[in-house]
Every structure is written in structure tokens, then in C-alpha cells.
Specification:
about 100 residues; mainly beta; 4-stranded antiparallel sheet; 3-stranded antiparallel sheet; about 5% helix; about 40% strand
């Protein structure tokens, strides 16, 4: 798997298996005139395994499809739950509630 551009990296146990997972988000729309924008990724979830190894989880399996020029993401508290707040350059904000 090749990750072209990640503007935000979040680490947490997303699947409640007691192992840390990695969520990579971002694209790069602004670039030099002679270089086209880099917008081939949606997001990437890497599931933590034993011995510091990670397994790629497809977007179809994870249900994550964060398109656009994602610039940053952060964990926030949403009531009694945890959520991910995602910001895009000149785009809509997203809020993804986590199942924790």
C-alpha cells in the first residue's frame, strides 16, 4: 500500500481489540502549477496486530470514505461518546461518532 499524502494521523483502538490502530487522512490539492493535485486517497485504516505489525483495512470494510482536501482531524468528546472531527480546505466538516 502506498499512501500518497496524509495530512492527519490518528492513533486509537478503533475496533476495540486492545491494540492500537492508525487512521491516515488527507489529500493535497494545492501544489505547484506544474504538478497536478494529489487526490487519490480517501483514508486509510491500518489495524494493529501482534508485534507492532499492521494490516490494511479496505474502505469497503471500514465504511470510511472521507473524500476531499482533508487538512486536519482530531478526537473530540460528543456527549458521552468519542468522535472524530474532520476539517477540509474550503469544504464541509465531518463528524464521525466512534463505537466506544
Amino acid at each position: 500500500m502506498y499512501v500518497k499524502d496524509s495530512n492527519s494521523i490518528l492513533v486509537d483502538d478503533f475496533n476495540n481489540d486492545q491494540k492500537k490502530d492508525i487512521l491516515l487522512l488527507g489529500n493535497l490539492y494545492s501544489s505547484e502549477v506544474e504538478i497536478p493535485r494529489n487526490d487519490i486517497s480517501y483514508d486509510y485504516l491500518l489495524k494493529g496486530k501482534q508485534n507492532s505489525q499492521f494490516e490494511f483495512v479496505s474502505n469497503k470494510t471500514s465504511g470510511l470514505w472521507e473524500v476531499g482536501d482533508v487538512k486536519d482531524a482530531a478526537f473530540i468528546k460528543a456527549g458521552a461518546s468519542k468522535a472524530i472531527f474532520i476539517a477540509r480546505n474550503n469544504g464541509k466538516l465531518s463528524l464521525i461518532k466512534m463505537n466506544k
